[in-house]
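All the exercises in this workshop are built on plain-text protein records. Sequence and backbone structure share a record, each on its own labelled line. The structure tokens are whole numbers drawn from a learned vocabulary of backbone shapes. The record below serves as our worked example for the rest of this section.
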Amino acid sequence: MHFRRRILQPRLLPPLSQVLFIQPSRSYASSTFLLSPFLPFSRPSPKHYIKIFIASGFLLSTSLILYENSENRRIDKAVRKGTLPELDISSDKYYPRPQVLEQLKKIFTPQKNSRPYYIIYGKHGIGKSTSIKMALKEVGQGVIYVDIPLDTNDFGKSFAKAMNITVSDLTGYNKNEPWKVALNAFERAAKDYKAKYGRPLVIIYDNVDRLIHKNTQILDILQSSVTECDIKKNYIAVFVGSEYLFPQRMSSHGYWTDLDYFEIGDLTENESIDYLSTKKNIKVAEANKIYELTGGCIEDLEIAADDLISGQSIEDIKQRIKMDVEHKFRDAKLFPNEKYYETGRNIINALLKSKELCLTELWKYSNYSDSDNEILSKSIFAYHPETHKITLQSKSIEYYIRENAKYYIE
């Protein structure tokens, strides 16, 4: 087959001036100009508006949720509201102490002349944590409470929880140092809080003794953080504990002028009798006998009262107390021929005569040395850091000593 090639002839374009002024036909314009406001199908329908409204609401709510759940927002919320630790205690185990409560509230509500950090001190079972939690219920805003757990490896989790930081926020950090993440977050929050409210934030570290034996470095860093922030006074730290080694460690790593102390002591004799008679329904005569055996430590009073209520006699309670104290003497190596027997006996005799000793007076005993400081960390003697005085820890200790006078009293 043969194809005939057809060559198309080019057509000339109109002049440019004509192109610029070419107008579309009226029918074309009417059918294609969709933006005309006069055409009914160009106006969005009510359903269209509803869809836009729903979509906008969804985006807004999503944005708010993301904002509320953001790390900074959660931390800010924790700081504004303050930490309100759980306080699960029955009325028969709590005795109100208005003076203690008021002093704690003053510490937790800092003024211009407040010290950068405080040590709240008192022996085990005296009610420190309970009193602090009661005060926090009234103070609220601007106070973060961190309870150091028995397993100090979980300190980071406890700190993060107090700061409203989730576990996912800690992902990617050294698993052994999440507390540093929480501390850094707290320092930033303290700076923002000071700028916004014009007063320092407060943080409470409860049960600091638990860091002394295994994680002393953590305690040192927590204290250093306060010192470094003291120039701007962004926050105040409160360290709470019981053992002799804890205030000694802190005072040796800081300036005495930076520290302030508040000791929570025993109930007075009248308070102890009132507690036993009103809270435990113990007769006054028996309440007096219990007080002479235990002293004013509320935990000791409670145990003795429960023993009496359960049917035990005062003599039974005496025997139980003697056994408990005997365990403490064994743990302190204060039995005859043991490591601290001679040193301990000298201190005991001095305390029986004068009721208290200055810490520096211990050096007048020829056989006392730095290694003997360990004896002060046991539950035989009580150290009072504000006055640097030593006393016997309780009436039950004195009772045991007098019952075993041939071994301990010269």
Remarks:
- Confidence is low (pLDDT under 50) at residues 1-39, 61-69.
- Residues 163 and 186 are 7 Å apart (CA to CA).
